[in-house]
Structure formats: structure tokens, C-alpha cells
Amino acid sequence: MNGPSAIRSTYPYRSEPRWSRSERVIARKVFDAALKRELQEVMHETKQKANQIQEPGEVWELERYLNQRRKEIDGKYDFRSSRLIEVLGRLLYERRITDQELQGLQEDKLKAICSCAKFLSENAA
């Protein structure tokens, strides 16, 4: 029988990098720290905006701001293996993480993350 192999690859996408257990621990630590810092930034900005409210209608502006930030954050922070390179690259580009925090990842992943950050930087200019 000449057909496609009945044996499925254990990894669905060959172009996706494989993350070792130790790399996933490092990535999770960096990811969680960046998310916490960004949420603390949102809390600080929210408190400032709330303190400046003078009119009842401004409460809804604060709500719109929070909804917008939530959508941005929910769309950015995705820990799926298939998205980690892009997510960490974006966080590096936005300076929410540093390359020092990524130490311990294999060279191929570091290069891919830095390449993603550089691509975003070049396209932002």
C-alpha cells in the first residue's frame, strides 16, 4: 500500500520549535513577570484616570479604557507553544522583557525571538 504514513508525527507542525521542560519554565517565568508588570501599569494608570474624573460621563471613558486594555492584553499574552516565539518577540520589542531574562533558552529560540523583535522594530519605523 503506497499512501501517506499512518504514523502521525508527535509534533503537529514541523516548523514550530520544540520547547524543553526547562525552557518552558523559563518562558513561563518571563511571560508571567511581563504580564504582572503590564497589569501593574494598567492599575497605576487606572488609579490616575479615576482620580481625575470630574463628571459622571467620564466614568464610562474609564470603562472604555479598561475594556480596550483588556482586549490588548488578552490578545498579546498567549502561552501556547505555537505562539511563544512571537509573544516573547513582541514583549522584547515593547521592552517589557529583556534578553537577559531569556537566558537559558536554546540559541535557536533566542535568535527567533530577537529576529521577531527586530522585525517589529523595523516595521514600526
Largest sheet: none
Q: What is the helix tally?
A: 4
Q: Terminal Cα separation, in Å?
A: 55 Å
Q: Specify the helix fraction band.
A: 55-70%
Order of helices and strands: HHHH
Key structural traits:
125 residues; elongated; mainly alpha
Question: Summed up, what is this model?
Answer:
With 125 residues, the protein is mainly alpha-helical. The protein has four helices and no strands.
Task: Note down, in words, how this protein is organized.
There is one protein chain. With 125 residues, the protein is mainly α. It has one domain (21-124). It has helices at 21-51, 58-76, 84-93, 107-124. The termini are far apart. The model is unreliable at 3-12 (pLDDT under 50).
Task: Set down the secondary structure blueprint.
Elements: H1 21-51, H2 58-76, H3 84-93, H4 107-124
